[in-house]
Each structure stands twice: as structure tokens, then as C-alpha cells.
What we know:
The chain has 178 residues and is α/β, with parallel strands linked by helices. It is built from 1 helix and 19 strands. The protein starts with a strand and ends with a helix.
Amino acid sequence: MSVYSYKGKIPQIPSSVFVGDYSTITGDVMIGEQSSIWFNCTIRGDVAPTIIGKKVNIQDNSVLHQSPGNPLIIEDEVTIGHQVILHSAIIRKKALIGMGSIILDNAEIGEGAFIGAGSLVPQGKIIPPHTVAFGRPAKVIREVNEHDRSEMERISREYAERGRYYQNLQKQNKRLKQ
């Protein structure tokens, strides 16, 4: 993990957060307790703030950035899939962003919404709470059902468990190297 300050702004990363190897976090970034930042992620807070809530998982190879004066906000218990790009958007609590999706400036993903893999949510698009959206550009295709909700909760729970496991491995490896 590489952590850099930027113009006096230092990333705020609680000790309960797992950050995977080869991830880079810079500048005005705040990460909530028990979140996990997986391998090879880039989170830059060098243009505007990036605020990440509690129990968020940001999976491998994702990139988070912003436009001037336009923060990126991710609320609690959100899942960000592998290789996602988030740019100056708002992701409401318990939402899931599927692998390879791109969420652009001023887009808002509603609470408990599910964005299908490979989707593009264009600038300013609002995805309502508890809906499934998919496509390029993303369009709402239906309401989140009980199966979806159950899967979203399972993924969030399992990533929290894996994050703690890997964090313990990091601590053990650090002790072995001393």
C-alpha cells in the first residue's frame, strides 16, 4: 500500500480498514471503520474529497477520483465490484456497483440500488433506490427483489470477513519480517 499526502491533506485510514497490496491512496480521502480496499485500487483525493463510509468494500483494480469542487461520496455498507471507475458521484448506502461499471460526475446511485456489471451511469443520472439498472447507458430494468437483496448482503458480509482475514495475514507477515 502507498499512502501520500497532497498539499497538506493526509488520507484518514482507521486501523480497522484492510488495504490490499499495491493500492494507492492520496490526499483528501476519509475511509470509514471496517471498510476494505482490495488489491491494486487507486483512490485519489487530489482534486476534491473522497469520502468512504463504514463497511464499504472496494474491490480489486477500482479507480476513484473527482472533478474540482465535486467530491466522491460512498455511504455505508456499499459494495464496489472489481475494476469499477467512480468519478465525483454519490453512492447511497447498501448499493452495489457491478464489476467493470463506470459511474460519472454528479450521478447518484440510490440506497440499496444494484448496478449491473459493465454498466455506464452517465453524468447527472439518478438511479432510484432499490432498483436494478443495467446497460450503456444504464437504464432501470426492475425493482430489487428479495434474491438480489440477499445476494447483496451476502457479498457485503463475506467481503467484511475476508478483509479481516487478510488484515490479520498482513499483521502476521509484518511480524515475520521483523
